[in-house]
Amino acid sequence: MNKILKAAIAFCLAVPFITMMTVSSARADKIRIALAETPSDELAAFFVALERAKANGLDYEWTAFSDEELAIQAVLSGQMDIGFGTPYAAMQRSRAPIRIVFQLSKLKFFPVTSKKYSTLEDLNGEPIMLHSRGGGTDSIANVIEDKLDIKFGKRSYVPGSSNRIAALIAGQTDATIVDLSNKNKLMKLQGDKFNVLPMFEVDASDEALFGNLDWIKANEKDVDIFVKALLSVWRDMHKDPTVISRETNPDGPIGQLPKEILDSLDGFYTDAVAGGLYDPNGGGRKAAQADMEWYSAAGQLTGDLASLKIEDFWYLKPLDDASN
């Protein structure tokens, strides 16, 4: 087995995998939350917020779906109440009044390449590996093309940043776009062999919390508890990123992750806060405007940008109330 393949396998083994699962609390009238991925270090802050919300009376269950599209469809169908994702195309197409209430994270993804490339412009005409057709990394690639007046070559799709990093290490691709956590892992393991290309600043949402507006209004008290808990964690995290590891429930889904992941939580959240991954104000109007501009440029929203209205995509009352 050659060294490159060994490195790729080792990287994959370092990334935890958890099968789809549901965790329930006692009452039948609990909030049903659709996660767009399995629990990981990136969801630790969210689960800390859930613990705070539970302490204030929120009853919930969560289900981890294999991708964002399934989570969005689960909310659209009424199978789930609250979902993870950025369902702008679905909001515009669907008759269901889907609205975002909180920005969970920004689109802080990183173009990572072999030493063949040193700038984004070098990728003009070159193949690139992305997460999924129409997903976040695909939209990033579209906006890069638009902003820099370049055109990527063939796009291939491999779900999961860790899998794309493994492909990069194995020499199966020379260019991809990955999340903060996996970018940091790569540079720690083999930083001398790869480049992280300079990227323009993005305030648009990668993950946001959304639900049916009718359901949100009918469950105002629970939604308020949830949003207040999220806002408190996001603000505390900016003051001291180690709050996430300190408040992680050892018996919860994050507490059950491998020790090496738990030991790296402080480093991950310190880097994430410094890198601007989380807005301490939950996004709000600034994120909503950035989202409309970004997802219009990415081709996921249609029509004249000037005609798009924030209230057609966000319901700001819970966040406004939590901020006061």
- How far apart lie the N and C ends? 59 Å
Q: List low-pLDDT spans.
A: 2-28
Fold-level CATH name of the largest domain: D-Maltodextrin-Binding Protein, domain 2
Q: So, the CATH homologous superfamily of the largest domain? A: Periplasmic binding protein-like II
Provide the number of structural domains: 2
Q: Give the CATH architecture of the largest domain.
A: 3-Layer(aba) Sandwich
Q: Please tally the helical runs, counting DSSP H or I stretches of 4 or more residues.
A: 14
Shape: globular
What is the typical, i.e. mean, pLDDT? 89
Measured as a percent range, the helix fraction is 40-55%
- Judged by helices, strands and strand pairing, the structural class is alpha/beta
Please compute the radius of gyration using only Cα atoms: 19 Å
Widest sheet: strand ordering: 1-3-2-4-11-5
How large is the share of residues in beta strands? 15-25%
Largest sheet: 6 strands, mixed
Task: Give the C-level CATH assignment of the largest domain.
Answer: Alpha Beta
Describe what this molecule looks like in 3D.
- There is one protein chain.
- With 324 residues, the chain is α/β, with parallel strands linked by helices.
- The chain has 14 helices and eleven strands.
- The chain has helices spanning 3-13, 44-55, 68-76, 88-93, 136-148, 161-169, 180-190, 213-218, 220-239, 243-247, 259-263, 265-274, 284-297, 317-323; strands at 22-23, 31-35, 60-64, 82-85, 98-106, 110-114, 128-130, 155-157, 175-178, 194-196, 205-212.
- The strands form three sheets. A six-stranded mixed beta sheet has the order 1-3-2-4-11-5, sandwiched between helices. The chain has a three-stranded antiparallel beta sheet with strand order 9-6-10, with helices on one face.
- It starts with a helix and ends with a helix.
